[in-house]
Amino acid sequence: MKRRLIKQSDSSSAARDAQLRRWLKRGLLALIVVLLLFSLKTFQELIQHFVYTHRIRLPFFIDLNQPAELSLNHTINMYLTSEEGVSLGVWHTVPDSQWKEAQGKDLAWYQNTLSDGNPVFIYFHGNTGTRAAPHRVGVTKILSALGYHVLLPDYRGFGDSTGEPTEAGLTTDALYLYNWVKARSGNSLVIIWGHSLGTGVTLNIAPKLIERGVVLDGVILEGAFNSARQNITAYFFTWYYWKFPGTGYIFPEPWRDKKVVYPTEENLKKMRSPILFLHSEDDHLVPIEIARQTHEVAASAQNLERAKLVTFDGSKGYLHNGLYRDSHLPDVIKKFVQSL
């Protein structure tokens, strides 16, 4: 009798354990379903954060705080706040003639040199990479050798600058930097050089300044795109978002409601500044025919003296970024500056 009771007790205990495990599994499953239902939006936002906002910084292994590593040893790195929460990394390179004097100098010294009478260039770069890209460093060295100051910023979201890149945001950054320079440059010429995406940024700020009664001293547009004549299907700042294949079918693209316009021709028709177009005949991103048509719009708005186009031999292989390698470029720039 005793043995029989023990068997019944063991059987009852096993049944209770099995039932408990079933309830635990059901409860856990129900909990997972509830959590998924009530936190789907948050879950999507978290996934998008990891999927989209892993930024790529090129070139790799470059310390943007140390421009001297790129032989820009008369350059200071600084950070400017274009608006609340947005810090812009900017390099200021002084003319080559001030190389020795610049050694060990602080930010105040660099700022004071902006009013020394030498022309000041603000260079707005293209839509990938940072201010350390070889062609941007190349242009900086040319301008410095010609005796000019160079301010080379990374827009918001680029390089070590904070914030998310949008057309309105980049326009705000460019206006802020221009005003910052003008407040410190005295009677020095301030010339804007835009390359690729930077041409759109430059042409966006010019009409806004005209509305305030300010006309840019001079503008250089290198590899200028034309949104009215080109089918630009890719979002300019896609690189900012690390997008894995297929995620677009599950999660909305973060730039969906941030359309990029850059009305090149509309802005050119409002320009009142001397413009120099620079374009390689073998540019693979903006065909030379587009460059000529864009120049015609600018010349019609002003005249051929105030809107000039200089093209470069396509056999040299400069493509979209390589004009800085041309031996004639320094003379072209110098002649333009002297005409202002």
UniProtKB/TrEMBL annotation:
GO CC terms, sorted: endoplasmic reticulum membrane
Any GO molecular function: phosphatidylcholine lysophospholipase activity
GO biological process: monoacylglycerol catabolic process; phosphatidylserine catabolic process
Highest taxon above the source species: Eukaryota
Domain AB hydrolase-1: 119-235
Entry protein name: AB hydrolase-1 domain-containing protein
Annotated source species: Monopterus albus (Swamp eel)
